[in-house]
Amino acid sequence: MYEVGQVLYVLIKKDHSVIPVKVVEKILRKTLEGESISYIVELPTPAQDQIDLQKLGTGIYSSSADAMSVMIENARTTIAGIVKKAEDIAKTAFNVDLTSSSKIEDDAHVKHEAHDTETTGYQHAHSFNLDERIEVDLGQGMKAKVSVSGLET
User: Fold this and answer.
1) Distance between CA 119 and CA 136 in Å, rounded?
2) What residues pair up with 19 in beta bridges, in sequence order?
3) Most exposed among 16, 32, 39, 75, judged by the fewest C-beta atoms under 10 Å?
């Protein structure tokens, strides 16, 4: 699965961060119950601490882009849930018909995203104040504080 010397990116739920680790040992265990593989990784600490990869959790990715994609998808899902909840409240509290306006907005949003992706290779949201920090629920109990200036392309 992983190779010795490979750098992996681990989502740390506890402090909502991503850390790179380097595989320094691959251990194959053969027992009466079967075979298992475990990995020892080096942490990016001055002492080059080593730990069993399984102890870091399940959010392990082969590239930073993969980790970022998962985080963005989790954020997108959370945001969609927040907006859906607001739409449900608007429908109940203000008797708003969302079917026609949502369809138009959805179509415009899809076209906007497609254009952004074609021209820049990235999808981005509306502009925010560059000094602003937002908190995004990444799902599974994880939240991230994101500096908007770091999101600008």
Assistant:
1) 26
2) 10
3) 32
pLDDT tens per residue across span 54-72 = 999 889 999 999 999 988 9
pLDDT digits (tens, 9 = 90+) for 79-112: 999 999 999 999 889 988 887 655 445 554 554 4
Q: How many CA atoms, within 13 angstroms, populate the side-chain half-sphere of residue 17? A: 6
- Please check whether residue 143 is in contact with residue 16, taking contact to mean a CB–CB distance below 8 angstroms: yes
Contacts of 62 (CB under 8 A, 6+ apart): 2, 6, 8, 9
The tokens for 141 are: 């109990």
The Cα–Cα gap between 144 and 36 comes to 34
Q: Which residues contact 139 (CB under 8 A, 6 or more apart)?
A: 74, 77, 78
